[in-house]
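Example 5.3 — Helix-turn-helix transcriptional regulator
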Amino acid sequence: MATPEHTGVVREERESVAARVAQARKLAGLTQWQLAERANVSIGLVRSVEQRRVSATPAFLGAVSKVLRVSVADLYGQPFAPAAGQDREVHSAVAALRTELAAYDIDNADVLEVRPLDQIAVEVGRVCRYRRAASFHKLGDVLPALLGEVRAAVHRLDGPDRDRALVMLCELYYSAHSLAHKLGYTDLAALAIDRLSWAATESDDRLWTATAQFQRAALLTSGGDWTAALNFLDRCRSSIEPRLGAGQRADLIAWGGLHLQSGLAASRSGKRDLADSHLAEARETALRVGDDADPILSFGPTNVGIWSVALAVEGMDSGGALTRAQHLVIPADAPRERAGHHYIDLARAYLLHGDRRRAEHALLTAKDVAPSQTRYNPMVHETVRALARAEARSVDTVHGLAVWCGIAGGL
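Solution (predicted structure tokens):
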């Protein structure tokens, strides 16, 4: 009879990304050679991922998902099972959000009382702070009802007041995207971006329009359609470029943010020089902006520094990532959502560099900074699995992280 420990290991192997890739490949009727050829990756990488000798990177999963005709989220196994307690309540908010996003253009003003816009604005500002702090539980508590109220306001008002309500709706749709994306509900996250694009267009708000474009390109990049993402982002920036000389803050933030997203697509497609070119443009623009006070894309010098580390990691350049991280100082008041992402990327960089102790420490820091975001991040799960396979001496730390993340069997 199998021991509980053995059962946990077997279950973990069956539920790993490696197993899902292998299963999807076999269901597609492809050999490892055929998958490698069609996805334009090396046969050695396919074998190493399926044999759990290396972690599956976002770039690898984006490439093979297109060939296998499955989503990256399916290969990750998202959404992950919620932890006990408050996390289950957060996941329960997803159904209400899904219904509200489906009803975006339906007039509900005759059945819902709407407060004055100034009062609603206070609540929307609070949602923005929750999003930047990666406060999943608070977002789940307030988003569904507030979305309904602001939707009613949009249908009830006209003129400048309607535009103001639409801008509020942009923040709420963006926050809904953030929550759904980080919990692993990728279909709902994509729907939220579609709704954000609608509200931004209706309000004629340039920065929110660029934010919708930024996230639409992120969907293309995640799915491995890097060329489409780069072409789309080039087209989006072309409408901003004629206005750059005026130095309007919203235009600068949009221009720089879209360059960062281009850098990500370039990094994942293996075009390091192109990624560095986009990063340099973003860095120069951030200096013109001068601060990181933008509450939407968080664009500014610090966030560009965070992205510089991430782009190097995505390009599998651990040395470059760690060098860039050495010169990066994250202020204490930086959004926890951005700081948490940095430490997740830093853990990946240390792991690539062979420094497992620092990788563990970076994960623990990410957990302290943005716990819910870290718990449900798929690359955290992959990093924890890789640490468990490679470092028996750290078994207590890694085991604790695995159990906290909800990885089957706790590794």
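Remark. Residues 80-204 form one domain.
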